[in-house]
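Dear colleague,

Thank you for sharing your sequence with our group. We've completed the structure prediction you requested, and as agreed, I am returning the results in plain text so they can be pasted directly into your records. Please verify that the sequence below matches your submission; if there's any discrepancy, let me know and we will rerun it promptly.
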Amino acid sequence: MKDIEGKDVEIDLFRNSKYLIIFVLFMIVVTIIPSTQAQAAAGNHAVNTWSQKLDSLLRDEPDLQGAIAGISIRNASDGKIVYDHQGDIRLRPASNMKLLTAAAALNVLGEDYTFSTEIYLDGQMKKKTLKGNLYLKGKGDPTLMKTDFDQMAKILKKQGIAKIEGNVIGDDSWFDDIRYSKDLPWSDETTYYGAQISALTASPTTDFDAGAVKVEVKPVDRVGDRPMIKISPKTDYIKIINRAVTVNKDGKKKITIEREHGKNTIAINGTIPITAKEVTEWPAVWDTSLYALTLFKQAMKENDIKLEGEIKKGLVPETAKIIHTHHSMPLSELLVPFMKLSNNTHAEILTKEMGKEAAGEGSWKTGLTVLKTELAKFGADANSMVLRDGSGISHVTSVQANQISQLLFAVQKEKWFSVYLNALPISGEQEKMTGGSLRYRMKTQELKGKVMAKTGTLSSVSSLSGYIETKSGQRLIFSILLNNLLDEEKGKRIEDKIVSIIANQ
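Please find the predicted C-alpha cells below.
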C-alpha cells in the first residue's frame, strides 16, 4: 500500500515536473516572440515611415495631379528594390538617357579612348609650297577649339608649309550625313543643345558645345546706342544683325539672340539697361563641318600660311599622305562636361562613334543597336524600351525607372565605375565642373554633397537618377521620372522633396 502510494507520488511529481517544464518553455516563447516581433516591427516601421511619406507626397502633391511619376529605389549593395511606384511604366527620361549612353560608351570605347583629327597632303612640296590639296579629316572630336586649329597651323608651318596652291578640303565621312536625330524638333535646330552632329565640328569654349558659337551682348556707356556684341570664337562665319538698344538703368532687360533657320545670320533684338550684366547665348551654326574648316583657314592665315584655293568638303583620296594626327582628351575626362553639363551633342556623337567602332558605321541606327546590346550586359531589358537617340532630347524615347536603377546597380562592378561616378553632378557643390546641373539644388546640410545624380529636363518632363548616401550611412540607388507636368521646374522641387525623404531614413 505504501509502495503503491509512494509510486503514485513519484508519478505525480514526474507529471508535475513535465508540466512545469512545458510551462517554463511556453513562457519563454511567449516572452521572446513578442520581443522579436517588436524589433521586426520597429524595422518595418522605419521603412514604412519613409515609404508612406513618399506615397503621401505622390498622392497629395498638387503639381503631380494629372502627371505621371515613375520611381524606383534600390539597395546599392544587393540591387533589391525597396520602393517602386510605377517603376515598370515607360516614361520619357529626358537627359537621364545619358546615363545609359555613358555606360555603353565606356564599355564599347573604353575610358582611355580619344577622338582623332587627321591632316593629309595630296601633292608635291616645292620650296615651302604645296602644289596640291590639304585635307582635314574629322573623326568625331567634339572638343576641337580655335586654339587646336592654331596648334595644327603651327605644326604645318614647322613642317615647311607656307603656301597651298590647291584647296583645303574637310572630310566628315567618318559619320553618315544625317545631321539631326529622328525626333529633334525644327525649333531646336538653332540652339546649342540641338546642334548638328558631324564628324568634323568645333566648340566655342571648354564647355565643348560642339557646333555652336558663344554670343555676348553688353551695354555701352550711352543710352540709345547699340550694345556691344562679342562672338567666341571670333569668326566671319557668322553674320550679326544688331537691332538691340542700350536703355537707361530703369529700362527693361529683354534681349533675344536668334539664328535664322538654315542660315548663319544671327539677329539680336531688344533692350538692355546701361548698368545691366551681359546677356549670353550659344546659338548653333548651320553646317558645322564648314564652320570647323573656316576656323582652320583662319588659323592658317594667322600663322602666315597662304591659301590660294578655297575651303570645301570632300573625301581624302587614297593617294594622300597623313602628316599629323591630333588627339582629344580621353573619354574619362570628356565625360565630365558631358554629364555634369548635360551635353546633348556629346551624347549623339558617342552614339554614332559606338556604331563606328563596334559595327563600322557611324549612324544613329547602328549606334543605337550597339547601345541596346550593351544595356543587356547590365541586366537592363533594352527590348522593353523605346530608344531613338543618345541624349534623351527625343519626346519618343521612353524607358522605365526600374531599368535605369538596374543599370545604376550593375555598373558599380565595372572597372570604370569611378570614372562614371565622378562624371555625375553633385548636389549643392557650386563649382561648375563639380556640381554641374545640381550646383544650385539640394544645398541643405542633409543633402549637400550626398547626392550624385543625372538631371533631365524637357518640356513637361523632369527626371533625376543616381546615388544617395542616407542619414544612416546606407547608399541607395534611385530613379525619378516625372512626365506630363504643367511646369517642369516644379518637377525639380518635387524631386528634391523625394530625395530629402530618402536621405532621412
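Summary note from our side: The two ends are 74 Å apart (CA to CA).

Kind regards,
the structure core
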